[in-house]
Amino acid sequence: MSIGLECRDGVATVTLDRPEKHNALDLADARALSRTWRKLRTDRAVRAAVVTGAGRRAFCTGVDRSAVADAEAVPQPTSPFAVEDPLLSIGPKSNDLWIPVLAAVEGMACGGAFYLLSEAEFLVATEESAFFDPHTTYGMVSAYEAMGMAQRMPFGEVARMALMGTAERISGRRAYQTGLVSELAPAGGALDAALDCARTLASYPPEAVQGTVRAVWAAKEAARSQARAQAPQLIALGNLPAARQAELFAGRRRSGRDGAAFRTR
């Protein structure tokens, strides 16, 4: 299993552990992550959690495309009103977990990583972190990802990130300036900084903390739910056929552009 779980001092550390794949998630990882959040719901000893990625090159780069390239791996409904998305249930809130969950980001966080980041209470990152959304580059609609991040970023910032695709990356410094990131830690220090905050939260009465988490989320849940209800139709209308997406992705990898052709803000 590529999802690590360690519990200490009332804090659970959930680690995406595929550094050789930039912590991209395959189907088994997505299911394991969902099970992990559900497991924490019934563990009274855990009062806060931190989610992070192994290594310093990436927090998470979304779904592992090589693991879902086969159309039979994730069969899609025939109706444009429904989408079978393997990452829809990887976040803590999607699994009805209401202890505070913090995200510690080192390196890249892109695409499907936003399912996790959009369901964390707050983010700790480093200046070397980089946030971007590759969907449009590969002929895909950024729907659930952009909707989730629109709850945490100024409209112009999330619109720019979602539209610019792989051409541009948001630095940890810029993410901090716009409010996406609440604390900048030194390189290699994001996890320690997040754990320090999580231990503080774990020391407080859990009912008060979880009630506050629910209150904060209630303030924006109506808008979030209404937006997500439109996502399947937007994806069905705007996505290129899977084969064409794969061609665009493979062509970019062969040209080596993924590692060089972008600007950082």
Automatic annotation (TrEMBL):
Keywords: Isomerase. The keyword Magnesium does not apply. It comes from the Bacteria. One of its GO terms (molecular function) is isomerase activity. InterPro entries: ClpP/crotonase-like_dom_sf (IPR029045), Enoyl-CoA_hydra/iso (IPR001753). Pfam families: ECH_1. Belongs to the enoyl-CoA hydratase/isomerase family. This is Enoyl-CoA hydratase/isomerase family protein.
